Amino acid sequence: MVRTPSIRDEFKFETEELHSYLIEDIAVIKIKSRVFEALTDLAESGKLISLIQAAERIPDVKALMVINEPGCMDENEYDKFLHRILERGIDPFAPEEERGIVQRVDRVREINILNRTISQLIEFKKVSVMALQGNIVTPFFGASLSVDFRYAAEDASFSLAHLEYGLHPTGALPFFLPRYLGQSKAVELLFRGERISAREAMNLGLVNAVFPSGDFENKCIAEIEKICHLDTRVIHATKLLLHFSKAELQHYFDTEAALLH
Q1: Which of these, 49, 108, 139, 172, is most buried using a 10 Å CB contact count?
Q2: Which CA distances in Å does 156 have to 49, 89, 153, 189, 212?
């Protein structure tokens, strides 16, 4: 007799870019490599979103953790992506270069797909966590603020590298940052463009905890398990009340889309 695959079995998946697996009642999606390419490939990006949706459908899963491999969301990958879609060197002082980038199909697609992913994370009914390692560049810094909890490795940092290319910050960072820091501090960070260490991010309230790099994933899982004992109905109701500004977020996305045309 052939066994019908369960929802838990269907969640388990691995490619060069993504690895999804279950640790007891925690669903884990690990982003391994080529993250910007994945955000401009409809099939790859669709798989990430479908995994988030699958984690919500598994009855005994109480939390989702999205974790990245160090180096896949950093300034170097961001630079390679922007140079690839521009197909020539970038001059950050030339306004026409900015226009050239934002009009590229891949750039628009990257923003739209990332915004769809953020919307999916905002609407996730269970506990959502991002576990961040290495350098995290602007788009993923913003996306990380859409989840319930953020944990960072002790050597992690956040880079507002968009300023080097004369681009606006993506990943809904201008939407989320004032909600965490207030308008004045958010404006300061967005225009100053300095790198923020994991400890600085925790002091600002942007990261919930910082863990040693050597045993980072296990430390994150242990921390999530402390939350998983809560009644799922309480979690869902609390999240509905916390995220009452979905219409504002959609308006933000619409405004950003208008800037790209």
Answers
A1: 139
A2: 25, 28, 5, 17, 10
